[in-house]
Amino acid sequence: NVAHGLAWSFYLGYLRLVLPRLEDSIKAFCETRKALCGRGSRKLLILVPLNANISHKLEEEDNNIRFYGNLPNNEIDRAGVQGRVYKHSVYSVLDEHGEAHQCVVEYATPLLTLHSMSQESSAGFGEPERRQQVLLFYRTLQEILEHSLECRNRYKLILLNDEDEDDPRFLSKAILRHLQQQE
Amino acid sequence: NVAHGLAWSFYLGYLRLVLPRLEDSIKAFCETRKALCGRGSRKLLILVPLNANISHKLEEEDNNIRFYGNLPNNEIDRAGVQGRVYKHSVYSVLDEHGEAHQCVVEYATPLLTLHSMSQESSAGFGEPERRQQVLLFYRTLQEILEHSLECRNRYKLILLNDEDEDDPRFLSKAILRHLQQQE
Ligand SMILES: Nc1nc(=O)c2ncn([C@@H]3O[C@@H]4COP(=O)(O)O[C@H]5[C@@H](O)[C@H](n6cnc7c(N)ncnc76)O[C@@H]5COP(=O)(O)O[C@@H]3[C@@H]4O)c2[nH]1
């Protein structure tokens, strides 16, 4: 089950490394950029779209989302690559009143692998199985993160149901709903 | 089968992105650092140790290996992270005559996931299965790369058998053997 391994990989090779450092990165950003200073924005929002349709830039998905900048780079030596860079992007999301809310948000990168694998005939699974694999990825990751002391309270997993994708404000609304839960 | 998904992830999320750019990065390095200019060093050497024992710095494995520098950063927008950085480390390897050979080399990072998973009881597999998974990873990756036009001739997969690990020059000898094959 590909999704099981990708969820473990995402935790062991990424979230477990970066989430404990997130608070410090956000504090540094708040001091220089005067944004992300509120309590509600101290978590990494991780987007998990059920259809595995992932954009590389969130502003291309929804006009109410703008790229705001990047958190400072984290450099970690990993498997021979010295100073491998880990970083997150900050986005500004406009609500219905035109007010901007900054947050650290990104898609769950392994879904790109699921998407590409479903299109490579030699990879062993196709589009019908992909949705099942995304759900398995989400549930496995949720389970792992709930038991992780290093990641506790530092993330929010956002499962995106694609039925509402026709709404051009679908993504900003989903993000805002979760941001408001934190405040 | 975790290794199958990790091999696809390593190809789709990394090698397919970075190998086509490797030649340009090496040329830029050769111009500024006057090293890696020979034809034999235009490939990424990918180390696959059967026991999944991975170091984060190769010089810690073998005194005849030294860190030489990093290739220039490649920045690619990926899944919401803007300007995500991809880079490789360059190492200098001394042969038996004391002559130094530079090369771009790193471990296959997904083996870190296999190693950590074999130690997490809730991940579903243990140390006995791990070696099998490393072999499956190696064979799957080899198969994928042989059919990839974008990656053709730009890499060398080096399977490291751990029986010779007692030799403190094990790693440098393995790397040199493969470098000499290219020249
Ligand atoms: N958003 C995000 N930002 C990151 O910096 C990052 N680094 C890893 N990941 C995701 O975490 C998981 C574990 O990573 P690992 O390094 O073991 O495998 C990685 C690693 O073996 C290789 N790879 C990817 N980027 C690099 C890189 N910059 N340097 C070396 N190897 C890399 O290719 C695999 C798949 O990468 P992604 O498909 O981008 O997703 C990974 C993966 O799902 C990231 N996700």
Task: Describe this protein's structure.
Two copies of one chain form a homodimer. With 183 residues, chain A is an alpha/beta fold. Chain A is 40% helix and 23% strand. In chain A, the strands form two sheets. In chain A, strands 2-5-6-1-7 form a five-stranded mixed β-sheet. In chain A, strand 5 and strand 6 form a beta hairpin. In chain A, helix 1 crosses helix 3. In chain A, 40% of the residues are buried. The mean pLDDT of chain A is 94. Chains A and B meet through helix 1, strand 4, strand 6 and helix 2 of A and helix 1, strand 4, strand 6 and helix 2 of B. The complex binds cGAMP (1SY). CGAMP sits at the interface of chains A and B. Chains A, B: It comes from Zoarces viviparus (Viviparous eelpout). Chains A, B: It is found in: Cytoplasm, Perinuclear region; Cytoplasmic vesicle, Autophagosome membrane; Endoplasmic reticulum membrane; Endoplasmic reticulum-Golgi intermediate compartment membrane. Chains A, B: Belongs to the STING family. Chains A, B: This is Stimulator of interferon genes protein.
